[in-house]
Write a structure and sequence with these properties.
single chain; alpha+beta
C-alpha cells in the first residue's frame, strides 16, 4: 500500500506539469471602471504564459453598446484588451459573458469593479464563464479583510509550484515538530518579501522569479533522491525553507500587483491575503503529513520508506525541471 501511495504521489506531481503551463497560477483579470454618464472602461488580460489566442472576449449585456475601437497589446505582464462600453442603465445587476475563442486554459477569473464610489472584488472558478455585476442590494457585505483572505486562499490552492515546494520540505523535515519549524520559517520569509514586493519597495522580474521557484523544487528533489545525509538541508531544513521562501514571496506578490491593493485598508488587505495563503498552506501540509503518517501506520510490516522518498523525488524533480525549462525559455 505504501508503494501504491508513493506511485500515486509521484504520478500526480508529474501530471501537474502537463496541462497548459499549469506552473503559472495567475488568473484572468478584469478591471471595470465607471466613468460617468453610463460610460465604462474595461481592461482585461490573460497572464504571459498563456498564448494570445486564448484571450477571451467580454460580451456586453443587451442593454449596453460596445465601442467600436478595441485596443490590444502584449507586454511582460500578459496579453491585454481594452474597450469602452456605454450602458444607459448601468452595469449593476447585469451579466457579462466571458467567451474564450478556444477553451479556458484552466484560469480562474478575478474582476475589480470600480463603480458607485466603491470597489467590488469578484471571483470566478475556471469553470465559471459569467461575471455577475452585483446590484446595490446584492453587493458584498463582507469586509476587505474577508475578500483578500479568499484571494490568498485561492492563490495558494492553485499554486502547484508553491505546494510542491512545501511537499519537499515536509519529506525532508520528517517529524511533525521539524515540519512546524520548517514551514514557519518558510512562512516568515515569504511574508516579508510578499509585503515588500506588493508595496513596490522591491520589484524583480516575474518570469525570473518563477524560474528560480522551479529551481528550488529541483534542489529539494535532488536532496530527497540522495537521501538523508550530513548536509545543511537535512540538518536544518528551516534554513533552506527561509532562503527560498524569500523568492516565493515575490511569486505570491505577482497576483496582488495585478489586482491592486485598495487605497483604504491597504495593510489590512495585505495581511489578509497572507492569512489566506497560510490557511491553504497549513491545510495542505496537515493533509499530506497525515496521509503519509496514516499509510505508514496501516502497513508497518512493509519495507522501509526509501522507495517512497525516491518516487516522490523523481515526481517533484520531473515536474519542476519541466517548469524550469519552460520558464527560462519565456523569461
Amino acid at each position: 500500500m505504501i508503494r501504491l501511495f508513493a506511485a500515486v504521489l509521484a504520478l500526480l506531481a508529474t501530471l501537474a506539469a502537463l496541462p497548459a503551463r499549469a506552473d503559472d497560477n495567475r488568473p484572468f483579470t478584469v478591471t471595470i471602471t465607471e466613468e460617468g454618464d453610463g460610460a465604462y472602461d474595461l481592461v482585461w488580460k490573460v497572464p504571459p504564459n498563456v498564448e494570445r489566442a486564448f484571450l477571451p472576449d467580454l460580451v456586453a449585456p443587451e442593454a449596453c453598446v460596445e465601442g467600436e475601437q478595441v485596443r490590444q497589446w502584449s507586454d511582460a505582464l500578459g496579453h491585454w484588451r481594452q474597450q469602452q462600453w456605454t450602458c444607459a442603465q448601468g452595469l449593476a445587476g447585469s451579466d457579462i459573458a466571458i467567451a474564450y475563442p478556444l477553451a479556458n486554459p484552466n484560469l480562474a477569473t478575478i474582476a475589480r469593479v470600480h463603480a458607485g464610489g466603491g470597489v467590488e472584488t469578484l471571483l470566478l472558478q475556471p469553470g465559471e464563464h459569467v461575471l455577475r455585476i452585483p446590484a446595490p442590494e446584492e453587493a458584498s457585505t463582507g469586509s476587505t479583510f474577508a475578500e483578500f483572505v479568499v484571494l490568498g486562499f485561492e492563490h495558494i490552492r492553485e499554486g502547484i509550484d508553491h505546494l510542491l515546494f512545501v511537499t519537499g520540505l515536509i519529506i525532508i523535515a520528517g517529524t511533525w515538530r521539524r515540519i512546524l519549524v520548517t514551514v514557519t520559517g518558510f512562512t516568515l520569509a515569504h511574508s516579508l518579501t510578499l509585503a515588500l514586493a506588493a508595496l513596490d519597495v522591491i520589484r524583480l522580474n516575474t518570469r525570473a522569479v518563477e524560474a528560480v521557484i522551479a529551481l528550488s523544487i529541483v534542489f529539494l528533489a535532488v536532496e530527497i533522491a540522495r537521501g538523508r545525509r550530513d548536509s545543511l538541508t537535512w540538518r536544518r531544513p528551516v534554513t533552506v525553507a527561509a532562503s527560498f521562501g524569500l523568492l516565493h514571496g515575490f511569486g505570491f506578490a505577482s497576483v496582488l500587483r495585478e489586482i491592486g491593493l485598495p487605497d483604504e485598508g491597504l495593510l489590512t488587505a495585505l495581511f489578509a491575503f497572507n492569512v489566506g495563503i497560510e490557511i491553504g498552506q497549513v491545510i495542505f501540509a496537515a493533509t499530506l503529513f497525515g496521509a503519509w503518517h496514516l499509510t505508514r501506520r496501516i502497513a508497518p510490516a512493509l519495507p522501509q520508506t526509501a522507495p517512497l522518498r525516491t518516487l516522490a523525488a523523481y515526481g517533484l524533480g520531473t515536474t519542476a525541471s519541466y517548469w524550469l525549462i519552460e520558464r527560462l525559455s519565456s523569461a
